[in-house]
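[audit] Reproducing an earlier prediction to check determinism. Same input, same settings, fresh worker. If the tokens differ from the archived copy the diff job will pick it up downstream; this log only records the rerun itself.
[audit] input (324 residues):
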Amino acid sequence: MIPWVEDIARKNDSSGHALYMMKDGKTVLEHYGGYHSFEPAAQEVKATSRFNIASARKSYIALVIAYALYDRLLELDRPVHDYLEESNPVFSGVSIRHLLTHTHGVGEGDSGLYTEFTPGENWSYNNVGLDTLAHLVMEMYGETIRSFLQKRVFNQLNWTETGWENEDSHKLVKIISNRDEKALNGLHSDCDGTKKNLFVSAREFAWWGQLHLDKGRVGNRQIIPEEVVNLATTIQTPSGLSYDLPRNGAFWYVQDVPRMKSEIGDAVPAGSYQILGVTGPTILVIPKYQIVAVKMYNKRYNYGGADYLRYLKEYGNRVADACT
């Protein structure tokens, strides 16, 4: 796996990368390479280096949404209109389930939200579902995504390398847009947990995956109710969706059978689930083999081009093949 991860870093011009794999709850592979940016004095990538995980943050927000479902604050098949004080007409026919699984059919353009397709009849990846649900659950719990997770998860496990950041630090890996351009810091003034400023080390990213694999249990402590984890990591996609389209839990991609437009490799067994971000960070959880595999990069559009799904599937296939 290490040569493959390093080869992808070279192909995509990522300045830094990491690979962290766990088997049966134990670390079996830990590798770091490159630098926080291409700047001359950039830090080397180390175990304490924290990558901006971009859209992989959806898995963190998803857990709070799963809690809201568990606490009966939300119901999967109730219309979004039931929960919004001022509901946009484009949400007509859209349920909580649709928002969670990219099947809501609401697009977002320069002039605002618009109807892209009938809810439940197609699949389209965007942030409308995430943004709508994130703000909804914050209102319901009366606290931010960040504070909710900090109290219920991060503090319970003494995690110090996971968090939304608004100030730079020597431990934060920069985001590469192009080698010849100044690296981006990925910071945001708002740290409520909704923005793309979540930075995580490779090891705590893997522990996040392991927490899900272990159904919210750490040792003899049930940190998260098992049903909350199940809601997040089992298929919630409405039935009847085209065969080729991905299936999702709460934003996690979930494998049942190989699907042409899924990001999960065909060799990855059923019941596995994965989340990734545009800069390349990925968690793949394979319950059948008790494996959590994490890779980290810092290059935007890390798998750019029309053939990007091939690289995403190849990662999962290589992990799965290594287990058989």
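[audit] rerun output stored. Observation attached for the diff report: The longest strand covers residues 26-34.
[audit] end
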